[in-house]
Amino acid sequence: MPVNLSPPDPKSLLPVKGVTLGVAEANIRKPNRKDLLLIRLDDGARVAGVFTQNRFCAAPVVVARQHLTMLDPDATIRALMVNTGCANAGTGKEGIAAARQTCSGIAGLLGCSSAQVLPFSTGVIMEPLPVERIMAGLPACTADLRENNWLAAAQAIMTTDTVAKAVSRRVSIGGADITITGIAKGAGMIHPNMATMLGFVATDAHVSLPLVRAAVAYAAKHSFNCITVDGDTSTNDSFILVATGKAQMPEIDDAKSSGFTAFRDGVTGVAAQLAQAIIRDGEGATKFITIRVEGGRNDDECGRIAYAIAHSPLVKTAFFASDPNLGRILAAVGYAGVADLNVEKVDLYLDDVLVAKSGGRHPAYEEADGQRVMRQSEITVRVVLNRGTASATVWTCDLSHDYVSINADYRS
Amino acid sequence: MPVNLSPPDPKSLLPVKGVTLGVAEANIRKPNRKDLLLIRLDDGARVAGVFTQNRFCAAPVVVARQHLTMLDPDATIRALMVNTGCANAGTGKEGIAAARQTCSGIAGLLGCSSAQVLPFSTGVIMEPLPVERIMAGLPACTADLRENNWLAAAQAIMTTDTVAKAVSRRVSIGGADITITGIAKGAGMIHPNMATMLGFVATDAHVSLPLVRAAVAYAAKHSFNCITVDGDTSTNDSFILVATGKAQMPEIDDAKSSGFTAFRDGVTGVAAQLAQAIIRDGEGATKFITIRVEGGRNDDECGRIAYAIAHSPLVKTAFFASDPNLGRILAAVGYAGVADLNVEKVDLYLDDVLVAKSGGRHPAYEEADGQRVMRQSEITVRVVLNRGTASATVWTCDLSHDYVSINADYRS
């Protein structure tokens, strides 16, 4: 059961001028489900992305990164293709060839070069990509291409997700209204390092390519890079930002302008909402936990501590049980790898409850107060280091029986 | 259900001259169970230890470390006290005072100074130590002191352990037979960093103090520091080696002598058997997994990769399900943080089965072969990096429903 997360209202999802989407049932792994998505972009779109830091990155990540960086300056990306059911990772040179073949197939259908196509895959690792099924499914995708198809697109990229993830918002920039719409998928193998499993955000804003790149990096850092379900960084993480430039507005090309800040924050807001939706729908999740570490010397040490707490199976099972066994949080702070941390300065809050003061249980803390907060479906853990001004926030979920069930049964 | 681990045969446990042990039911957390252990040492024993690297180390760890390093050169450690039910961690200055108070109580009973006593605690974090109950239980411990009491000692330090862990062996050194007997406890919050939850090994060998220290560090590195259940480094990890010097033999005082090597390897053998027993009895464990990473440039990168695999909840649930979803292992290799790893050189074996060759699925690999190995209760994962000669071994267990149940219910 996802935590306070409903399927998106179709009416809330706004089309983005210059973007059409089509889906198909290609029977890639299982029958009778949408498992293939084609996103077609009008000529001139500016596209930037960030990808997994996993050394075993998937073949489509290798190819997409190449196409984004080696594209002829006069050409632009014309299509994104996403398949579920097979990650095309750990597949060696055959996997790269398979990803290229799907790009060529799409180039033939849309009349562009294969370097103008970005491939994405998600699903089981170390199994060969069923290229023929994808090829056979592509004509149905092109026949289905339309502007108002974001919900179907979000559904087509789901794997163990139980709820489709899609978000739109409008942002006003210097009198022009722009639209930002995004979709994402992911529920397990979630500890993105540059991006999530898959996230795609499109806007009709008119923004220079360097600033599209700056915005995607900033948004990833403040959204998908702040979440973890199980600490497993996927082989296929990709987060792509498309700016079609179709809105009636002057081009944003100054990183210091208020227009760029508004654009960047709008994109980041959509990305953060999608990233949080991934945690709310985390495998087996029953609680949505915000971990905030404050008063550190630098961002890095705050992040280490936040992730140590977020990854601790003992902390996560205590949340599942609504058990205020909060010493486990202090233990995780202690082993996070901050070598000179003075634990006698550390304070711990659970929502508004001061649990530990100066490294030890606060005299006024009563277990009933901790119990009250632990029963909630949304909880904030706040650790105050009292040694500086840096901070970090991580969003995570608890560890439940269903996480084990889902991942013990994933392939069957 | 522990994995291929039986309770120790009482007859197999050999007394160590100069060491007596006594246990009691002190009602520290729960009634009707042995929860207090006193180990008395004859004058002249050489004692060394290694402790948790957790910054939130427990009060008894602080005090034991002080007593070991600040002891008057003419005095020796005379007693070790262990309580379960309360870790006395995250308890601030009151916790330190409480640990010192128990040392004084024992010093009064045994007629030594409190600096000659080492305190150890294990149990729930961030709750005050019930000093009065410990004080009230100590006379029963001293009344119970005897040489042939190792099994009761192993039972008295159990928490979520389902099987007591105790091992003896005899080693012949230059014609003299020495005895090494050890006990340990631990099943969860297991990712020791210098030592396990609690391990105590005693021998009657006659060894200089610097070499006792060298042996305990070496043994920890090759035993307790090679295991992980859940990646949570405890606040209370302690591993103590006692050499009473009661055996009829010349003192071992040369680190390059064959006698020291035999002694060190004997201690390491006992420690490794205890460490592996902790994994076999890991919370919810159904499988014992050995992860061996070979062909690395240095030990550090091999260890990082081995621990990334051992900590991955996705890998651990696949083992629980006996599902050869082995791409998850490649993903963990990829995100282990070895920045320049060339994945196209990586081979993966499951026992004797070559699963992946040169970074991709081996053409001859058949899922039936992977399935056969995954069904076993003992499995070796071997990752060959093909870039050097270093290696690392980590022992771990799978992640099952019972791990979640045990840790969701631990305090109740």
Features:
412 residues; homodimer; L-amino peptidase D-ALA esterase/amidase; 16 strands; Ubiquitin-like (UB roll)
Describe this structure in words.
Two copies of one chain form a homodimer. By secondary structure, chain A is an alpha+beta fold. Chain A has two domains: 10-280, 4-Layer Sandwich (L-amino peptidase D-ALA esterase/amidase); 288-408, Ubiquitin-like (UB roll), CATH 3.10.20. The first copy, chain A, contains eleven helices and 16 strands. In chain A, the strands form three sheets. Chain A has a seven-stranded mixed sheet, with helices on both faces. Chain A has a five-stranded mixed sheet with strand order 3-10-8-7-6, with helices on both faces. In chain A, strands 1-2-4-5 form a four-stranded mixed sheet, with helices on both faces. In chain A, helix 1 (59-70) packs across helix 2, helix 2 (92-110) runs parallel beside helix 3 and helix 5 packs across helix 6. The two termini of chain A are 21 Å apart. At the A-B interface, helix 2, helix 8, helix 9, strand 14 and helix 11 of A face helix 2, helix 8, helix 9, strand 14 and helix 11 of B.
Summarize it.
The structure is a homodimer of 412-residue chains. Chain A has eleven helices and 16 strands.
CATH architecture of the largest domain in chain A: 4-Layer Sandwich
CATH topology of the largest domain in chain A: L-amino peptidase D-ALA esterase/amidase
Termini gap of chain A: 21 Å
Strand order of the largest sheet of chain A: 9-16-11-15-12-13-14
Judging from the principal axes of the Cα atoms, what is the shape of chain A? globular
Interface with most residues: A-B, 70 and 69 residues
Q: Compute the CA-based radius of gyration of chain A.
A: 22 Å
Roughly how much helix do the residues of chain A carry, as a percent range?
25-40%
Biggest β-sheet of chain A, characterized? 7 strands, mixed
Any low-confidence stretches of chain A, pLDDT <50, length ≥5? none
Total domain modules of chain A: 2
Tell me the fraction of residues in β-strands of chain A, as a range. Answer: 15-25%
CATH class of the largest domain in chain A: Alpha Beta
Q: What letter string, H or E per element, gives the SSE order of chain A?
A: EEEHEHEHHEEEHEEHEHHHEEEHEEH
Average pLDDT of chain A works out at: 92
In total, the number of strands of chain A is 16
Tell me the quaternary state: homodimer
Count of DSSP-assigned helices of chain A: 11
Going by CATH, the homologous superfamily of the largest domain in chain A would be L-amino peptidase D-ALA esterase/amidase
